[in-house]
Every structure is written in C-alpha cells, then in structure tokens.
Specification:
20 strands; 380 residues; alpha/beta; globular
Length: 380
C-alpha cells in the first residue's frame, strides 16, 4: 500500500515511526513526505530509500499517487488538504481535531461521499482494548445504571510548548480559527473517550447544539495566551458528562475517565490502557491497542469497520464549535512559576485537587469555591 505523510515534522515524527514499523513488516511503502520545513532522516523516524520529499502537498499527490495519506498539519489546514487528497483518490488518516466547525465537518463528509473515500480520525485511544472491555461491561450491565461519565487530567507544559508553532496558544491565525487549547488539543482524547463511553451507555451519539445537550463551559488561562490552559466542560443530560483538565498542574494527574454507575465506579486510564471495574481489587493493565493506520489498511483490504471514522467524531466537532463561539478564557491570577527560560512552567496552586473534585462531584470551579472562578458560558 502506497502511503504518504503530509506534515512530517513535529508530531508527524510519531507517524513516521508508526509507518516505519509497518514498512518493515511489508504492509506499506512510504512513497512521499511533505513539510514546509526541512525533513531530516532520524534514527527513530527514518526517511526510507525511495521516499520522495516535497514542500507542496499538491505536488506530492500528483507525483506519487498515494493510496493512503496521513495528514498531520495544523487544524485550520485540515479541510483543504483532506479534500484535495480525497479527490486525488486517497483514503485519509487525519489528525485530531479533524476540523473546527460542523460546517467543515459536513463539507468533508460530502467530499468523502462524492469520491467514495474514507477518513479515519487520529483518536488513537479509541483502539484501546481497555476501552473495549469497559464499554462491553457497560452494555452487559455490570455497572448498573450509569448516571455520569467524567474525565480529569493534569499536566505541565513549559514555555517552549507555546513556541512550538505559529498557531500554538492561539485562537485565531490570519483571520482563521485555530483553537489550540487544553480541551481541543492535548486533552482531546479525554473528551473523545468520554463521548465514546456515553455513546456506549445510551446507544446513540451525543447530540450537542441544535436541540441537543446544554453545554456549560468554564475556560481559564494562567498564561498570556488566547486559549484555555485549564478548562472544565459539563454537558447536561443522561448521563451527565464532565471533563476537567489543566496544563498547569501543581501535582501530576494521570488522565482518566470515571464512569459513575449504580453498582460502583469504573476508572479508565486511557493513556496507560489501565482499567478498574467494580469488584476489581486494583486498577490493572489491559494490553492491546489497534493502531489507526493498521485499522485503516484492514478496512481497505477486508472491510473491517473503522475505529474512528469521521462520522463518529461529529460530537467532538460540535463541542469544538461551541468552544470557538465562547468568550475568551478568564485569567487566573494565583499562579506560581518554576524555572527559567524555555523550560519554565506555570502552575496553579491547588488546581489538581480542585479538578479531581470536579470530576468526582460533577461540579464546575465556580461551584467548588475557587477564588478565581467565573460563571460558566452556557449554550441553550
């Protein structure tokens, strides 16, 4: 299978490593790499012999005619590149967030229908065996009635994180939304896992906007950036959904999704593929994760269902659209800076404990008495 990668630097190196493993196994052949910056051959992200290098993705598509294209470029460029690649005859593995509005989502879906191509979205945690075991337990009734699904995570990001690209920390770039925030980017998997588990609970995708669930969105920034580095979002309905995350943690919080059932809680650490179900003595590893590119290849060869088709990500895109329409994040004044230079980190004292409480109590920071909290933005 001829594979090309558009966006070969930055996070694209992760895709280069994944493609290299598949090429070593004889499953694919990397025929083209594209990036505006120089692409260097690296030991863990090689440029194999025969792979051509481009700076213009249109030239790549016309020259090497890939059957599958991996797109790992800034989010605001996804629709244009994905549309061009699909019309060139390629199936897509498109990094998350796939697009930044429901209008873009519908436009890409229309192109896929027109061309007969498919799009897998880069929510790799959806391929986790731990998630599959959890959703199977939910549908089997092991947790009883599920009243809520929440997620929490706390990381630290240095100053260099916000210098990684022109769109880093930005809400708009050259008049276009880019939305590099905690919910839409680094903790996008927490959001998508929560939505996927809610779908397993109800048997239907979560509806947001246009008569769907009401959204309460509390977004904050500890740095002088345009987007949130700390956020809590709550979606009304059954089950209640809540995600509480920060990039300014004072204590590291391993990202986890908590399913609140009448028979007890289930906890999924989605980055580690660890799971605890009611009755388990402790959290345990659940090995096995299906790669999204492998799954896409199996779909092409054997009609295997896609793990993260574009349609499955519509609720995520609807939430991204809500974030885009929301007011600017409120500043947090109570911060602590640690270190100097590009390695400096900014933390919010007490934030990790507060977000754990938010996930446990399904509460917003303003409801938990945070001195810096403001009322949440609400949709109707």
């Amino acid at each position: 299978m001829r594979v090309a990668l558009i966006g070969a630097n930055g996070h694209g190196r992760w895709h280069r490593r994944a493609i290299a493993r598949l090429q070593a196994a004889g499953a694919v052949r990397l025929v083209g790499l594209c990036d505006l910056a120089p692409i260097r051959d690296e030991p863990d992200a090689p440029v194999p012999p025969g792979a051509r290098i481009f700076t213009d993705y249109r030239e790549l598509l016309a020259t090497v005619a890939p059957e599958v294209v991996v797109i790992c470029t800034p989010p605001h460029t996804h629709l244009e590149i994905a549309t061009t690649a699909a019309r060139a005859g390629a199936d897509l593995l498109l990094e998350k967030p796939p697009v930044l509005s429901l209008a873009e989502h519908e436009a890409l879906a229309a192109v896929l229908a027109e061309t007969g191509r498919v799009c897998q979205v880069g929510f790799q945690a959806l391929g986790s065996a731990a998630l599959a075991e959890l959703t199977a337990a939910i549908t089997a009734g092991r947790l009883g009635a599920v009243r809520a699904v929440s997620a929490v995570g706390g990381w630290q990001r240095p100053d260099s994180y916000y210098q990684r690209a022109p769109w880093a920390g930005r809400r708009w770039l050259a008049g276009r939304p880019v939305l590099d925030g905690a919910l839409a980017n680094p903790f996008a998997h927490a959001v998508m896992q929560t939505l996927a588990i809610a779908e397993a609970v109800t048997g239907a995708p979560v509806r947001i906007g246009n008569g769907g669930r009401r959204v309460e969105l509390a977004r904050y920034r500890a740095r002088p950036i345009e987007v949130d580095d700390t956020a809590v979002v709550r979606l009304a309905g059954e089950p209640v959904l809540l995600v509480a995350v920060t990039l300014c943690a004072d204590e590291w919080v391993t990202p986890q999704v908590i399913v609140h059932g009448e028979a007890g809680q289930a906890i999924l650490e989605y980055t580690e593929d660890r799971l605890r179900l009611p009755g388990d003595p402790a959290i345990r590893s659940v090995p096995g994760r299906t790669g999204l590119l492998e799954n896409l290849l199996d779909h092409r060869a054997e009609a295997m269902p896609l793990l993260a088709p574009l349609a499955r990500t519509a609720p995520f895109t609807a939430l991204v659209e809500t974030i885009t329409a929301a007011p600017d994040p409120a500043p947090i004044g109570a911060i602590r800076a640690i270190g100097n230079g590009p390695d400096r980190v900014v933390t919010v004292p007490g934030i990790s404990r507060l977000l754990r409480r938010a996930a446990d109590e399904l509460a917003l920071p303003s409801e938990l008495g945070a001195a810096w909290a403001v009322p949440a933005y609400e949709t109707r």
